[in-house]
Amino acid sequence: MAAEDKPLYEFMYILDGVLSEDQIKDLVGRISKYITENGGEIVENDEWGMRQLAYPIQNRNNGYYVSMHFSAPADLPAKLERTLRIEERVLRFMVLRLDAKMKRHFASRHERAAKKLAKAEASDD
Amino acid sequence: MAYSRAKQRAQRKPLVRNVTPASQHREKGKCEFSEAGIEYIDFKNTDQLQRYLNDQGKMLPRRITGACAKHQRQLTRAIKRARHMALIPFVADNLR
Hints:
The complex is a heterodimer. Chain A is an alpha+beta fold. Chain A has a single domain, classed as Ribosomal protein S6/Translation elongation factor EF1B (Alpha-Beta Plaits, 2-Layer Sandwich), CATH 3.30.70.60. In chain A, 42% of the residues lie in helices and 37% in strands. In chain A, strands 2-3-1-4 form a 4-stranded antiparallel sheet, with helices on one face. Chain B is an all-alpha fold. The A-B interface holds A 12, 14, 53-55, 57, 63, 65, 67, 91-92, 94, 96, 101-102, 104-105 and B 39-40, 42, 44, 81, 83-91.
């Protein structure tokens, strides 16, 4: 688990829906790498995949959603946001710092997901 | 045609579209979030948020959602975040 002194962040972004699978993979990898290389630690990575946008963004109707949680030093989100704003293939992004309530909410969901996973694995055997 | 338009208006769904709108399954004077012990309203949970929007995608007022001030505020924040991430629309003109 992540170091306790670093704040936990929720990070969600949407990639341009017209990109090819390889391009998406590459971009997702690059963004994740950017976080880890700048002292961040990815706690959970949840790729939602292609999804229809509720309204068009930059004339696109589809986007590739990625939702993740990471812990990082407090100066990372600002840096991350700066780089994402330059990247045109990222349609939208949002970084939220988890407060105590959100942490509890995340912990309970995280636990449930882990349990489900364990159960699925157990039934596989 | 004027006649058919009047007919359409009559057939239009009520303001609150849900089968069980928030207003109908709560007891008066109780906030359903507090009742359920919900501490944080997640913007990613669009099914939950959708229940507090009308047909046009507008937020329902507290008088209808029945939420206490604290939770209505949280709801507002969650809905605005979800809108930003294009999970729910800002405006939904369901013109047929």
